[in-house]
Structures are given as C-alpha cells and as structure tokens.
Amino acid sequence: MANWVFVGLGNPGSNYTLNRHNIGFMALDVIADHVSAPAFKIKQNVALSEVSYQGQRLFLVKPQTFMNVSARGVAPLLTFFKIPLDNLVVFHDDLDLEPGRIKIKRGGSSGGHNGLKSLDQALSNDYWRVRIGIGHPGHKDAVSTYVLSNFRREELDNWVPDQLGKCATTFDDFLRTSNAVAWMNRIDQK
User: Fold this and answer.
1) pLDDT in tens, 17-51
2) Which strands make up the sheet holding 56-63, listed edge to edge?
3) Within a 13 Å sphere around the CA of 190, how many CA atoms are in the beta-carbon half?
4) Bridge-partner residues for 58, per DSSP?
5) Any idea what the Cα angle at residue 51 is, between residues 62 and 190, rounded to 5°?
6) What percent of the chain shows pLDDT beyond 90?
7) Is 144 exposed, middle or buried (0-12, 13-18, 19+ CB in 10 A)?
8) How does 66-90 read in b/e, with b if 16+ C-beta sit within 10 Å?
9) Which domains does the chain carry?
10) What gap in Å lies between CA 51 and CA 70, rounded to an integer?
11) Considering only CA atoms, which of 50, 41, 47, 45 is closest in space to residue 25?
12) Is 21 a catalytic residue?
C-alpha cells in the first residue's frame, strides 16, 4: 500500500473560504467527498483527513497556517509518515492560467506563489503541482487584492465546481498510474 499526501493550499478562517487563493482548499474538499474521507481534524498546524482508497493510504491536508508559511504543517507530516516527495501532490491557484484551466506538473518555479515558496524552501521543489487557473487581474499591483477576493457568483455557479469536479472524477486515474500527463489529458477531455 502506497502512502500519498494531497495538500490544498489556502488560508484558514471563514473570511477566506471563497477567496480565489483558497481554491486548493476547495479542491481538497471535493476530493475528500469523492473518496468518502472522514471529516478533517485539526492536528499540529493542519486540517487532516486520512483514508484508505483503492489500495492506497491517502492523507488529505489543508494547512492551518497562513499561505506564506504553509510548510510549517506539511513538512513535519511528510517526515513523520516517511512519505517521499514523489508522493506529494499540491493543489493551488495559478494566476498565469485562464480561469478553469488545470495543468499538472512536477517541480518548477513557485511563480511568485507564497504557499509554493514556503514548501520549496522547506522541502525542495520536486513534488507534483496541480495548478488551477484563476486568471490574472491585469496588473501586478492588483494581484494581492484579487487573490484575496471572493469568486464572483457566476464563477461559483459555473466553472469553479465544474473544474473541481474534474479534479475529483479523474483523481482515480492518477492514483492508478501516478501519471500526471494522463491525468491532465483526462481533465482536459471532460
């Protein structure tokens, strides 16, 4: 049985729940429903749910620190359960992708994302990333306000649940093959 850690990046607290920056948390919630994971419980800087699914042991993690120190909860968990970076998958918002686009890759730059910077500094950058496009506000000075603002109602009624649903319904493919390219192709076809 392989162990996997799936991390959704976001900021804790009800006032951030529908922020664009919290789409990683949203993705984890949809995946948790898909795999019938138990409720998340707060344990040492993370909200954690553990479940056996398709012969794999899954740790679903939502850091309960703010975005720029996401590694405070994630790094100790990987160490404690002896999980290699090959088995870490991080879901996060991406300004450089149009809203609703999803790309999966391993490694690479943080692209200015503070949650990824924190993980890269603590762990290195050699882990899987599920980049969920939220679009760009058009000017770099508007980025902070944009990512910390809520999705518009029409986004929450249309592309947000559609794309998060694709993450969940194609999730089984990734677990079966550990093939990010195949997973991304399935997401793009749905």
Assistant:
1) 999 999 999 999 999 999 999 999 999 899 999 99
2) 41-43, 46-53, 56-63, 3-8, 88-94, 128-133, 102-106
3) 20
4) 4, 51
5) 75
6) 73
7) exposed
8) bbebbbbbbbebbeeeebebebbbb
9) 3-189 (3.40.50.1470)
10) 22
11) 47
12) yes
What's the token pair of residue 105?
A: 């890759």
- Give yes or no for a contact between 172 and 159, defined as CB atoms under 8 angstroms apart: no
**Catalytic annotation, pick one of 21, 34, 113, 139:** 21
Taking a C-beta distance cutoff of 8 angstroms, is the pair 42, 60 a contact? no
Using an 8 Å Cβ cutoff, are 129 and 104 in contact?
Answer: yes
- The residues facing 48 across adjacent strands are 41, 61
Closest Cα partner for 61 from 115, 6, 117, 116?
Answer: 6
171: which DSSP letter? H
Q: Which residue has the tokens 């493919």?
A: 173
- What is the phi/psi pair of residue 151, to 5°? -60, 145
Amino acid at 148: L
Model pTM?
0.93
